[in-house]
Amino acid sequence: MVFIRDPCGVACLVVTYGAVLYADYVVIRWIILTTMPGSLWMSFHVVLFNTVVFLLAMSHSKAVFSDPGTVPLPANRLDFSDLHTTSKNNPPPGNGHSSEWTVCTRCETYRPPRAHHCRICKRCIRRMDHHCPWINNCVGERNQKYFLQFLIYVALLSLYSIALIVGSWVWPCEECNQNVIETQLRMIHSVILLLVSALFGLFVTAIMVDQLHAILYDETAVEAIQQKGTYRPNRRKYQLLADVFGRGHPGLWLLPCTSLNHSSRYHDTPLLSHEV
């Protein structure tokens, strides 16, 4: 388990859970219980909405606390004066991509292909896409699945909230007895949640599309900035998705409880012990 002590990231975590809890409070207290009292739809929406909230919280917590793919430090640090000559003349051994191993001068260690150094995490991350303050962690090889799940569930929750709010306006409960204050409070909370859901929904949808593009075209955000192009152009789209979501059935890809089975090609570690 990892946790980055970054003030911006911690603040974003507080905002994220605050927004989710506020959405749950408004939808349950002011939309469902107020406009659907005693009906079967009330129980259905309470269970379904909180199920989405639970899956969102699970995927988000795993994205936050999971190791994104930190490259281990060597038992003995490399001699900093020999880094450049060692990396050029003596590339570390590996399977298939030995020439793509590089040396991180800040970690003072070899790093595998597609690994990059994060200045916030202060470590090299395998297949690093970017550092996301909303999960206070890097998005890398081991937690990109949970990050994408989190985005999907936020988008679903935002759409679900908007649908319930609009539905309560289009089909109001005529039998519900509400005083003027309760009606005004429900309207205020509904408008606020509608705006928050629309903004968060559009925001995470844009990031989700960007993440899917990065997966399907096998090019991380760092690689896109460096204009390296597709890393494995001949690999099938399904296989690229399976590299992120795991080798299980696609029907389980959206469950944050399933384990990841990454290919060993990115975990082959070179000889990290170096005589100083």
Automatic annotation (TrEMBL):
Membrane association type: Multi-pass membrane protein
Keyword tags: Acyltransferase, Membrane, Transferase, Transmembrane, Transmembrane helix
Record field: transmembrane: 12-32, 38-57, 150-171, 191-209
Cellular component, GO annotation: membrane
Enzyme Commission number, as recorded: 2.3.1.225
Stored InterPro entries: Palmitoyltrfase_DHHC (IPR001594), PFA4/ZDH16/20/ERF2-like (IPR039859)
Keyword Acyltransferase: yes
Catalytically driven reaction(s): L-cysteinyl-[protein] + hexadecanoyl-CoA = S-hexadecanoyl-L-cysteinyl-[protein] + CoA
Gene Ontology molecular functions: protein-cysteine S-palmitoyltransferase activity
Subcellular location: Membrane
Superkingdom, taxonomy of origin: Eukaryota
Palmitoyltransferase DHHC domain segment(s): 99-228
Statement: the UniProt record of this protein carries the keyword Zinc: no
Pfam families: DHHC
Family membership: Belongs to the DHHC palmitoyltransferase family.
The protein's name in its UniProt record: Palmitoyltransferase
